[in-house]
Amino acid sequence: MDDSRGVPAPPDRQIPAWAGTVGPGWTSLLEKLHRDLLALAPDYRIESFGTKFGGLRITVADRFDNGEFDGEFADRATALTDAAETASEHACEDCGAPGRIRLRGDGQHIWMQARCETCRTVLPGRSDPVGTGIDPA
Fold first, then answer.
1. Per residue in 48-105, pLDDT tens?
2. Cα distance between residue 23 and residue 52, in whole Å
3. How many CB atoms lie within 10 A of CB 87?
């Protein structure tokens, strides 16, 4: 593999390209991770980005210097993504308030999402928690 140092990563291979695929509550988390990864390596590239079991799952692509695997970069990048993944499990994906992983369902399917106490009861298309008549905004 070639050395990618010094060559900027395409914008579609860094965190901002995927930030819109998850809820707005995780925006600040992702912005911080992006800044931290840029400080580590301005040409970092995301290999995979998604959610699983209610939290973020992010993998940064390996780096090679003159054909040699850059283990120090891998360790530091993994520590940053691990911290962001853990933080996402304790922050509401909708609003960013403290939350936890909760089961959600629509009658046919069940999935896991990180939600705060208020957002956990808000159904899609509604602005008030179910049965309260209270607008959380």
1. 999 999 999 999 999 887 778 988 999 999 999 999 999 999 999 999 999 999 987 7
2. 14
3. 17
Across the range 108-127, mean pLDDT stands at: 77
Dump the DSSP string for the chain: ----TTSPPPGGGSGGGTGGGS-GGGHHHHHHHHHHHHHH-TT--EEEEEEETBEEEEEEPP-EETTEE-HHHHHHHHHHHHHHHHHHTTB-TTT-SB-EEEEEE-SS-EEEEEE-TTGGGPPTT-SS-TTT-----
- Kindly provide the b/e burial profile for residues 33-70, where b requires at least 16 CB atoms within 10 angstroms of the residue's own CB: bbebbeebbebbbbeebebeebbbebebeebeeeeeeb
CB 115 within 8 A of CB 99: yes
Rounded distance between C-alpha atoms, residue 100 and residue 36, angstroms = 24
Amino acid at site 48:
S
Q: What residue type is assigned to position 25 of the chain?
A: G
